[in-house]
Amino acid sequence: MRVLVLSAALAAMILPTWASDQAAPAVDPQQIIQKFAAKEEQFAEARNNYTYRQSVKLEELDPSGNPTGGQWILVEDIIFTPEGKRMEKVVYAPVQTLRNILLTPEDEQDLRNVQPFVLTTKELPEYDITYLGREKVDEIGTYTFDVKPKKLVMGKRYFEGKIWVDDRDLQIVKTYGKGVGEIKHSKDNQFPRFETYREQIDGKYWFPTYTHADDVLHFKDMDQRIRMTVRYTDYKRYVGKSTITYGGIVDDKTTTPPPVKKDK
Length: 264
Known about the structure:
The chain is mainly β. It has helices at 29-47, 105-114, and strands at 4-6, 20-21, 50-61, 67-80, 86-92, 101-103, 127-137, 140-149, 158-166, 172-180, 194-201, 205-218, 223-237. The chain has one domain (4-237). Helices cover 11% and strands 44% of the residues. β7 and β8 form a beta hairpin. The chain is globular, with a radius of gyration of 18 Å.
């Protein structure tokens, strides 16, 4: 079978049922957008000062959703060197056994930047953002927006889909969409949809903790169903002299997303 390419902006077709509240927002949608983008800017800066573990498992499935043996697993710790430089340390990376799909550089970009999507003030001009209404995500009141790039710049990856913004903290708590972009030298890359949940860490910022994808990729020569789970765990603020202790490899057998919750 010819080797095909897979997107790492991997997709979830499973959509939970959310309670909907169509009441008008308390403030103008444009004001909400400006405020949450400023909060996202603060969050992005704060996350750069945290260590955490990222565990990825990608599986090839048959049309019924049963694993066929092809998989890719990667566990990395995002840490700091003694000199304070941020780095990625591979903890576990067995030989990948994917048979019908091939990971690409765009996969890596999506895994690191699109799936844990952050929409900051400086990125607002790149996107068209449309207010959709109010919904609840696991009892958290949210403003919902449709987000899509205004134009695609060759070599750059973008998010396209829907975001849910906490109506009190004004930070993104959930995303559902896919990675998009212009790709040179390839006409058969597929970028299915994914779903990412965040949870409140240290009582202030909402950090991505779970991404799930389960979708059929439609290549020109074949269809391939895949499932991918990404877990972000063990968030710890870097203080320069601390010894960071990490937990074990995350078991991703459960595909039910964690509840969206705030620290108590």
